[in-house]
Amino acid sequence: MKLKIKFVGFDQKEVEVEVNGQRYSEILESLGINPETVVVVKDDIPVPVDDVAEGGEVKVVRVISGG
Question: Coiled-coil region(s) at which residues (predicted)?
């Protein structure tokens, strides 16, 4: 099944990947993104990166912190 990923705070804007039971963290790592530096949002609700990805669309939002 296909998963469309829209990126917020990245140079890349959008990508579509095939998912077959992978977790969001695995997909992010395959795209070169550290899962600890982003929030995955599906249907306007943050989801844990260790959840199994389903088809549809998610946003990946870069988290910026400072002190």
Answer: none
